[in-house]
Amino acid sequence: MELINRIAKQYYKISLWLIFGLTVIVLLVMQYFQETKLVNALVISALFSLVTSIAYIQSWKAVAKRSPSTLGKFYIAASALRMFAALLVVVIAMVILRGDRTALLGFAGMFVGFYLVMLAYDCIYFAHIEKKNNIK
After folding, report:
1. How far apart are CA 118 and CA 129, in angstroms?
2. 3-state secondary structure of 135
3. What does the radius of gyration of the chain's CA atoms come to, in whole angstroms?
């Protein structure tokens, strides 16, 4: 149990710093190009990443504590749910921003960037955990 809590705490810490770092980088790029109308897209992307990361690790903790043998299925199901949630957010943004092509492309690019970075982080982090085979 202590190991699972330690893994979750480390995941929280790294994902929070990763989201913060991405947000700062995007803010600096936006400031350089003076693209202030993409601030809402940045907020949505950062909040989506934060909320899904919290939901992902809370779910992982529950599965790891109750049934660690099913973690493989969990990774697939959780990734699919996150993908469908991201798709829903993008479709909603497309409906809202349908009149402004530049804002839509900026939002989509930023959102996909955040999504892919967090997806890569999840894969690398949990592959490392599974490689160590710490959860039994």
Report:
1. 16
2. coil
3. 17
Residue with structure tokens 């490392």?
Answer: 128
Tell me, yes or no, if the pTM score tops 0.90: yes
Q: What is the pLDDT of residues 2-58, one digit of tens each?
A: 889 999 999 999 999 999 999 999 999 999 988 888 899 999 999 999 999 999 999
Tokens 């350089």 -> residue:
32
Query: Rounded to an integer, what distance in angstroms lies between the CA atom of residue 114 and that of residue 83?
Result: 12
Tens of pLDDT along 72-90?
Answer: 999 999 999 999 999 999 9
In the numeric block, the tokens 């009149």 are attached to 99
> Token pair of 29, please?
């790029």
Cα within 13 Å of Cα(43), Cβ side:
5
Q: Which two tokens stand for residue 44?
A: 């949505």
Residues 6 or more apart from 59 whose CB is under 8 A from it?
Answer: 74, 78
